[in-house]
Amino acid sequence: MLCQECGKRPATLHFTKIVNGEKTEFHFCEFCAREKGELIPGTSNGFSIHSLLSGLLDLDPSGKGQTPGAISAQSLRCEECGMTYSQFSKVGRFGCSSCYNYFSDRLDPLFKRVHGNTAHIGKVPKRSGGRIKIKRRLDELKKELQYRIVREEFEAAAEIRDQIRELEKNMAQG
Known about the structure:
48% of the residues lie in helices and 8% in strands. The protein is mainly α. Helix 7 runs antiparallel to helix 8 (154-173).
């Protein structure tokens, strides 16, 4: 899908606005969204991506009345790129891949609120997802193993244990 604004680049930002039951969709490339100040056209209140992110992070977008959690966030800093959590909340993007590790304790609650979970549970690509599928299967088998042990179904538990060992061996071999 091409950008509605320029019609040249692929749309990477997709917004849906519902007012009085009337649904309007917007599709923009990142460049056009940035050029417009990340404002979504057609909104009367000047809604911005930053406002959305600030709300999700429990920060006041104006920066005046910060919540107690945001005050301690000012001291959090990525040692690789030097970005602070406060800067991340304003910009909405990390400075480097290490930021995920440095801010991880603050991100899990955010991901849970936005996505409903902290682990990806959607489709897995067929070509590159073999390892992920095996890990998911291992997790399922380990839960099943615990269930069988609690119910004292030791023969079934032994079979599941053997399946787990086989999968772990296959993963170790590549």
